[in-house]
Amino acid sequence: MAIQATLNARVGEVTERIVQRSSGPRQRYLDRIAAAGAEGPRRRALGCANQAHGFAACGPADKAELRAGDGANLAIVTAYNDMLSAHQPYERYPDLIRAAAREAGGVAQVAGGVPAMCDGITQGEAGMELSLFSREVIALSTAVALSHQTYDSAVFLGICDKIVPGLVIGALSFGHLPTVFLPSGPMTSGLPNDEKTRVRQLFAEGKVGRDALLEAESQSYHGPGTCTFYGTANTNQMMMEIMGVHLPGASFINPNTPLRDAVTREGVKRALAITALGNHYTPLGRILDERAFVNAVVGLHATGGSTNHTLHLVAMAAAAGITLTWDDFSDLAEVVPLLARVYPNGKADVNHFHAAGGMGFVIRELLSEGLLHENVETVWGTGLSGYTSEPALNEAGQLTWTDGATATGDEAVLRPVAKPFQPTGGLKVLDGNLGRAVSKTSAVAPERHVIEAPARVFHSQEELQAAFKAGSLTGDFVAVVRFQGPKANGMPELHKLMPPLGVLQDRGQKVALVTDGRMSGASGKVPSAIHVTPEAANGGAIAKIKDGDIVRFDGVNGHLTVLVDEAEWAARPLAEQDLSGSHVGVGRELFAPLRAAVGSAEHGATIFDRTAA
After folding, report:
1. Which residues form the Dihydroxy-acid/6-phosphogluconate dehydratase N-terminal domain (predicted)?
2. Which domain holds residue 540?
3. Within a 10 A sphere around the Cβ of 222, how many other Cβ atoms?
4. Separation CA 613–CA 594 (nearest Å)
């Protein structure tokens, strides 16, 4: 077990100010879930017809258990579909969960399903403009699933980008229920990530055809499980583990293996062991407190995780009555070292990270320097030191937990705090006369952390791609891609910008990206200021930029400025853009109320937190 060092002063300061600023909303939230929990199992108070509907389709044994009302009823909320490689393994989970629940003296029912879209499929397509808002739909769907009030605890089956945050937001509305998240794990390693990137750039230059590109992509994404780069999906898994709602070591075990099934069964048993029916009641809303969210931000920095969580963690925290800000991210980044190099921050994938020591090693190292709160509640029933252990099967095939790695298995992938890849976290908050933005500096070479160059303005990633193909992107420049924020078009990810910009950078040009859109965990080697807020469609200064304006991107000091005379800048009108083409087709017309209600990126780009409007 890890020994908790004295808490780092900065971590303590940031935590305390979050507690202070959140005191009113957090207390109201805790009072609400305490009142809900005090009622006991709600299903016992339902009318006879209500109860009969709830167990009508159950088998005789399950029906008898629910009818008596003594055993726990476990809700399964699933994001299963066949199209997401990470979620396809969930097809067999309900039967596995039901069997494990019966062994533990309970019953499990699929309470409901939530949508789960794949950003990898919708990249550069109209469907990507629904992606961020799918998080809100998932939260709403979760609430519908649990609204029958027949459950004593819940397990959540979700992995990928908006799905886990949406499930967490929805689950926190039922924060009196104990909750365990059950991952399915990453696919086995395929084509090396640097080779995949090389083929993508060759395709962007027209040096290889579509067949070569499709073959490379198919070798990269080749089977069941999470995509193996360290994007938002795998950052979600890190985050759920470091926040204590996974079992220790659960995040990165490959799918459809005996160990994965054994850990899943144990997760079901834990969900049933911590209900209000027993002596270890541990509701989700109590686990996910201010300390847990600080631990998540520390984990994000230490592993170089997805920039999407500067949105998602803010929105998730708000659902628990906690106000988390970008300044909290920035201040924590100054004291948290970068311990992992996983693509796009390095050549390794998450399987290599797991083999090198994985989450147990990271948590042990951060605890040893006082960079995490150890004294937190978890579904495992321990403080965070319990998460330095890892699961294994003994010779008899029984699940056991042993101390995790105390030394890294590969210093090219994972390092101790005493020898980090860089002394500060991989994320920077930028500020200036263009507004506020975030930048994933861990993926960018140090000599590119400051760039000053003329602006080239675009209103879509397709416009920039066309300019690249026409050969007009010459010299040093800062690409400004605007009207890509949540109010404009749902804030799509703009991954198709990276191959052409990467090609130009490799040719020796100094290039950077400034956008009110998203780039997520796959943000590449090009210095990028993303999530610019206020966004162009909401009167943001990014709408004032003209071609040729000198833009300064300073990832060292955290500045994002346009070098235009102050008086001229103040008087310059905002550009306008016809966005109607992004508001119809592929279901986008149905999301007009969400575009109208959504708050700013800095407040989580959510429709739920009304203080963010």
Report:
1. 73-384
2. 428-582
3. 15
4. 12
> What is the per-residue DSSP string for 238-299?
HHHHHTTSSPTT-TTPPTTSHHHHHHHHHHHHHHHHTSTTSS----HHHHSSHHHHHHHHHH
> For residues 282 and 246, what is the distance between their CA atoms, to the nearest angstrom?
13
277-288: per-residue pLDDT in tens?
Answer: 989 999 999 999
CA distance 422 to 399: 37
Question: Helix %, strand %, coil % for the chain, to 5?
Answer: 45, 15, 40
Pick out the residues of the known binding site for [4Fe-4S] cluster. 160, 227
Calculate the dihedral angle through the C-alpha atoms of 217, 472, 477, 199, rounding to the nearest 10 degrees: 20
Among 240, 139, 231, 234, smallest CA distance to 182 is for: 240
3-state secondary structure of 554: strand
Q: Are 231 and 66 in contact (CB under 8 A)?
A: no
Over residues 497-518, the mean pLDDT reads: 94
In a domain, 361, yes or no: no
Total domain count for the chain? 2
Q: How far apart are CA 495 and CA 131, in angstroms?
A: 13
**Model pTM above 0.85:** yes
Q: How far is CA 607 from the centre of its chain?
A: 18
Whether the CB-CB separation of 461 and 494 falls below 8 Å is answered with yes
| Average pLDDT value for residue range 471-494 | 96
Q: What is the pLDDT of residues 313-342, one digit of tens each?
A: 999 999 999 999 999 999 999 999 999 999
Whether pLDDT at 521 is above 70? no
What phi and psi values does residue 216 have, to the nearest 5 degrees?
A: -65, -45
Q: What CATH number does residue 454 fall under? A: 3.50.30.80
Could you report the per-residue pLDDT of 102-140, keeping only the tens digit for each? 999 999 999 999 999 998 889 889 999 999 999 999 999
Pairing of strands 73-78, 528-533: unpaired
148 found inside a domain: yes
**HSE-up of residue 258 (Cα within 13 Å, Cβ side):** 9
CATH number, domain at 254?
3.40.50
Instruction: Answer yes or no: are the C-beta atoms of 484 and 517 closer than 8 Å.
Output: yes
Residue located via tokens 């201040």: 331
Pairing outcome for strands 153-157 and 73-78? parallel
pLDDT of residue 47: 87
Grade residue 612 by pLDDT with cuts at 50, 70 and 90.
very low
Of 485-489, 498-502, 507-511, the least confident = 498-502
Cα–Cα distance between 459 and 474 in angstroms, integer? 19
> CA distances (Å), 211 to each of 119, 122, 219, 468, in order?
21, 19, 12, 21
96 CA to centre of own chain = 26
Ramachandran quadrant class, 180 (left: phi over 0; alpha: psi -120 to 50; beta: rest): beta
pLDDT digits (tens, 9 = 90+) for 567-596: 999 999 999 999 999 999 999 999 999 999
> Would you say residue 218 lies in a domain?
no
**Residue 383: which residues within 8 A CB-CB, separation 6 or more?**
4, 374, 375, 376
Residues in the chain: 613
Q: From CA 485, how far away is CA 472, in angstroms rounded?
A: 26
272 part of a folded domain? yes
Residue numbering of the annotated binding site: 160, 227
Question: Cα 186 to the chain's mean position, in Å?
Answer: 15
